[in-house]
Fold this protein.
Amino acid sequence: MASIIVRGLDESVKARLAAQAQAHGRSMEAEVRDILTRAAQRPHIGLALMEAAHGTDLAVDLPVPERTDVARAADLT
């Protein structure tokens, strides 16, 4: 199993995680592990919508025009 270190975590976030872990009856490490696992398993909403539309008449392949413009510096004056 892998380990990670999170540096620069705000003390208020750490305190909220500790309180949340206590409310769930587990260690802060177990609480963070659960939060990260659930977050990593959430589907990407854009990909989920694209997959849901695939195979229906809602899925339309739109042409992507070739870019012909040239990048230029912004005039901020």
Notes: The mean pLDDT is 87. The helical segments are 11-23, 28-41, 45-53. The two ends are 54 Å apart (CA to CA). The chain has three helices and no strands.
